[in-house]
Amino acid sequence: MLLQGIFPPIITPFYPDGNVYYKKLESNVERYSRAPCAGIVVLGSTGEAILLSDQERRGVLKSAREAAAPNKVLIAGTGIESAIETLRLTEYAAELGYDVAMVRTPHYYKKQMQPANILAFYRTVADRSPLPVIIYNFPQATGYDISAELVIELAEHPNVIGIKESSGDVEKVRKMVEGTRHIRRSATVTATFDAVTPRMLAGATAGSSGNAAELVQVAALTGSISETDPTLAKSPRTSLPQPFLGKASSTAVTIVGKMKTRQKEAGFQVLVGAAQKLHPSLDAGAVGAILAFACLAPTSCYEIYAAWKEGDAELARLKQERIAPAAQRVVGELGIPGVKYGMDFNGYFGGPVRLPLLPLTGDGKGEVERLLGDTRN
């Protein structure tokens, strides 16, 4: 499955009394569905998933799924400390129609989280998961930092398709990309190389009659590969790591219902979580990012990715410099209260946080407003 692009890990809105505000959740998701995002992540760290009950997690997954546009990749954060509870939530997400499970590293029993424990945990989840799995590493929150060597070993599992690496360590990104470069996997994409998931294929065939699929020549529909695939046409990109570049593995487009699809090589995919280091991480081989800063400024994050993908390094650098101070302060230091207030400031619904988190002070709100003064989107 293709995971390239920018994904906001959406917040969970609350009423002042602490109950989940589902209508505002749906409103935010509908707006992200119109933004230049590749997909949406539900129940990540920014979603305060660890502060929700199991019933609330299931309610949030259901509400977000129903509000999301059908062409967005949907990633469910299903990681819980035990493998069995992780699998239960993953199975529920699969029943709803999610495309990928994002599983954070177990961390509570830190001294016991040795390589053998982590390998057994992820292999057990990946073996039994009905969804492809991406590892989620967030050492700033968990206090546990999975090593690049362990990720490279786990990447050999056919159902572990990538990682969200939120440490901000660009050299670690480079090491993981280099160490998994040999992995070759095929992903279904549209004729214009956007992601396609089994859910999308099922939607494309629903109500169609006759043969579900037929093969036609690409040139007859979309022109040559160099004309239709920007990852192959742009010469400045040719030096980037092969796992991101990918390539068409077929010269034919498959018609599935109303959708034209083809195959593209994807490999093991590294997504990053630090917006202030997005550009250097892409240069190091990351394929995209799951960014809390994209919750309040998705277009600003996408502009960095788009400029880089088009081979315009200078524009990507300038776009990166524009958001770096705000991303570092609002997300990296003020955390979820800062993200939620930034969303309120930028026209989304952020609302209150849950205890033990506290809202920003008046000074904190003023600082967020100054930092986001030219980042309204």
Describe this structure in words.
The chain has an eight-stranded parallel sheet. Strands 7-10-9-8 form a four-stranded antiparallel sheet. The chain has helices at residues 22-34, 54-67, 83-96, 115-128, 139-142, 148-154, 170-179, 198-205, 218-222, 225-228, 230-233, 242-245, 278-283, 298-309, 313-333, 335-345, 362-371, and strands at residues 5-7, 39-42, 73-77, 100-104, 133-137, 160-165, 186-190, 213-217, 252-256, 259-265, 269-272, 288-290. The chain starts with a strand and ends in a 6-residue tail after the last helix. It has two domains: 5-184 and 267-371, Aldolase class I (TIM Barrel, Alpha-Beta Barrel); 186-265, no CATH class. The chain is an alpha/beta fold.
How do the SSEs run, as a string of H and E?
A: EHEHEHEHEHHEHEHEHHHHEEEHEHHHH
Integer tally of domains: 2
CATH class of the largest domain: Alpha Beta
CATH topology of the largest domain: TIM Barrel
pLDDT average, as an integer? 89
Which overall shape is indicated by the principal axes computed on the Cα atoms?
globular
The radius of gyration is 20 Å
Strand content: 15-25%
Key words describing this protein structure:
single chain, 377 residues, alpha/beta, TIM Barrel, 8-stranded parallel sheet, 4-stranded antiparallel sheet, 17 helices, 43% helix, globular
